[in-house]
Give the backbone structure.
Amino acid sequence: MRRKTSLVLLALAVFFAALSPLLRWYAFPRLAKIPANQYQDMVLEAKDATLIDYNDGMKAKKVPKVTIVQTLKGNVEASEKIEKTAGKDVVVWDGLSYVVGPDGKMVSKIPERYIFDAHTQEPVHATGEMVDGDPVKREGIEFKFPFLTEKRDYEYFDAQARTSAPIHFKGTQTFRGVDVYYFEQTIPWTKVPFPKTMPVQGITPASLAKTGTTRWYTTVRKFWVEPLTGAPVYGEELHTEELRGGTLLGGRDKVTVFAGDVKMREDYIRHTVDLVKSNRTLVLLMTSYLPWGFLILGLLLLALALWLEARGRRPAATKVEEPEPVTA
């Protein structure tokens, strides 16, 4: 009976010991993915910003606040269509960056379609990938970092410039009780397209091009990223846009269109940190808690099986019979 029990325990020990690396290195990369139907929104604010006033001689003025609303909506139908030819799990995010001035009126709105691998967050190039209606071919990540983010630089796509540039790992920090990696990207002054939708009726990118006026942009982009999930818990941009040259400016060399320190609104910071903490626990379960737990359980079962086997091999004690008394 002991030998059968020890064999069963030995089989279980092998099973759990083998399951430990399989769960970490095989199952996790395949199970951890962004859901295709995910929807999220984010509100950012730039307080004491500079904003152009198109109705007052196109002058740059100080305003109390500029609000940017960013939405990302998973397009399940589009992702399923692309998956048929891509041969992998694909997520399609239809995004919109909507900028509102202090008077509640639209300053600009730029739609995007971001297509990427659900597991690695690497871009997947397919028909429909665009920024503001312009076809693009992204290199590197955007919006989210990979699961198990590393302490290294990544290529990060800039939607304004329509190009990618390194976003540099700057070190580890603690943000609202969460251990994070801090990344920073600087986009130098770059000539960028005008938005397709302008805040003044009748003005279009084509009509602006005829004036010879161009649009320029620079930013310092900052992310505090929770490394297990790859999700930014906080983001900030030191953002500046200018109009330069041409007849539109009435002889001026340049005019600031927008300048401000764009930060996440406090209520969205709290919501994001809580969400990331919850998802972090799920990732830890797959990458640490269960693999190490299964490995330790396997070793304990192995030790118990060997102990039972050793006990079963001990020689049985022989009973010494007393000699019978001799009778005359």
